[in-house]
Amino acid sequence: MDFHLVPGEGRRNYTGFVTKTILYSATLLVFLTASALTLASIIVPKWVSYYSETPSGTKFHYSYGLHRRCSSLTQSCDPFPQYEDCHGDNDGSFCSMWRSVAFLMSFAIVLEGMTLITYIFILAGGKQMRETGWKVLTLFLVFITLVQCAAMALVSYLFDNDERFYPGWKLDKSWIMSVVSMCLAGFNAVIIYMTIRTLPSEGGYELIADNS
């Protein structure tokens, strides 16, 4: 049998092919998890919440989402922020920053959609896509990480500095989901970059002939 560990004309490095396919497939699963968390963080109105109880012992909570404000006392949610939240005695900068967070998270979803398309093209494409597509893929993942990081920073700033968030309020589930999503996107970017840079080309190494 004729095997080679050195490149040979017409021969293909199936190890490189399989490894890259596994890498892209595995990171795609991580990416889909991150995207689901991003979407959930936008839908679930629990970015900042206040939990307490009445003198009679009845527990209640208020929560702010990117687009809704909810109360367990009324069992309802209202659009947020509203006109009175942005005018009068309230600082208008809060609404501007809160809406910026909503925009950034929506933009992150758009970037994640573009990243998913990139994954599909890479996995469905040929050798050239697997060899070079990681550059665009990593760039999208870095953008997603930076956009979500900016959104997290804005919410954290408002939580620490806006007077409406007095002691008892806390960063809640939606904020945590977005942080996890951001970390997963950044993790994917690092893993893809480091792995692809060390893997041989698909036209690289093959087995040497065994003449014994």
From TrEMBL:
Looking at the keywords, is Transmembrane helix present? yes
Record carries keyword Transmembrane:
yes
Q: Which UniProt keywords apply?
A: Membrane, Transmembrane, Transmembrane helix
Transmembrane parts of this sequence: 21-44, 101-124, 136-159, 175-196
- Could you tell me what this protein is called? Pre-mRNA splicing factor
